[in-house]
């Protein structure tokens, strides 16, 4: 009888590892989404790392700025401080206000730098331009769809500090992306789908969700 080479016995575990790595990379998530083993553990291990990979800078540590004061009390328009937003097509564009926009109102010669800057002295740190995995076009929403900035950045006129709290939350997106007015497939907006599906959404979830939850609840994801 011919002896079976040892590498044959390694084929199955190697295949499982390769499948897990593909799912982890997010390139074929839909193919492996029904596998409770790799998806369950990948989601548990990696889901918490989303904010670390796509961390937004706490800009209140660099700049003293109040949207509430500028929007509600001064009456400034969003486009005055963020003039590049309406032409932006990708989420990685830096549409943050620059000093030139600030000096349109603040006198450059008489304004003390410490009025806005938290750091004690120059050189002052520039805002980071974070890596984002979202597919988003300000131009499509504000110019093509004629949407107001406040539609997505709801409540920004009440924000007292410049930090991550001024960014839209998913509930704001879902008010339009409900599957009726706009597509609600996660992949329309998300390019890195490793972290989207909760780890309890295993093989049997789709059936139970359709039969029980979706039929009796109006709550969205």
Task: Provide an overview of this structure.
By secondary structure, the chain is mostly helical. The protein is built from 13 helices and no strands. 6% of the residues are buried. About 8% of the residues have low confidence.
Keywords:
mainly alpha; 13 helices; 39% helix; single chain
What topology does this entry show?
Layout: H1 6-9, H2 11-25, H3 29-32, H4 36-46, H5 50-53, H6 67-74, H7 78-81, H8 99-102, H9 138-144, H10 149-152, H11 170-174, H12 186-189, H13 205-216
Helix pairs in contact: 2-4
How many extended strands? 0
Task: Report the C-alpha radius of gyration, rounded.
Answer: 24 Å
Question: What percent of the residues sit in helical stretches (DSSP H or I)?
Answer: 25-40%
Residue runs with pLDDT of under 50 for 5 or more positions = 21-37
User: What is the typical, i.e. mean, pLDDT?
Assistant: 77
Percent strand equals: under 5%
Q: Order of helices and strands, N to C? A: HHHHHHHHHHHHH
Major sheet, described briefly? none
Compact overview of the structure:
The chain contains 13 helices and no strands. The chain is mostly helical. It has helices at 6-9, 11-25, 29-32, 36-46, 50-53, 67-74, 78-81, 99-102, 138-144, 149-152, 170-174, 186-189, 205-216.
């Amino acid at each position: 009888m011919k002896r079976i080479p040892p590498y044959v016995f390694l084929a199955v575990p190697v295949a499982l590892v390769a499948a897990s790595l593909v799912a982890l990379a997010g390139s074929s998530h839909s193919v492996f989404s029904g596998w409770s083993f790799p998806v369950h553990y990948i989601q548990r291990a990696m889901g918490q790392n989303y904010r670390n990979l796509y961390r937004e800078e706490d800009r209140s540590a660099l700049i003293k700025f109040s949207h509430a004061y500028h929007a509600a009390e001064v009456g400034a328009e969003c486009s005055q401080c963020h003039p590049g937003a309406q032409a932006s097509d990708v989420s990685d564009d830096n549409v943050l206000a620059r000093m030139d926009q600030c000096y349109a109102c603040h006198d450059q010669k008489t304004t003390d730098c410490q009025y806005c800057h938290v750091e004690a002295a120059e050189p002052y740190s520039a805002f980071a331009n974070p890596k984002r995995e979202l597919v988003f076009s300000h131009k499509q929403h504000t110019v093509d769809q004629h949407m107001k900035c406040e539609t997505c950045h709801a409540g920004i006129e009440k924000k007292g500090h410049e930090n991550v709290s001024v960014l839209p939350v998913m509930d704001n997106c879902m008010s339009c992306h409900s599957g009726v007015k706009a597509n609600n497939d996660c992949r329309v907006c998300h390019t890195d789908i490793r972290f989207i599906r909760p780890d309890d959404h295993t093989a049997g979830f789709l059936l139970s969700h359709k039969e029980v939850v979706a039929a009796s609840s109006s709550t969205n994801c």
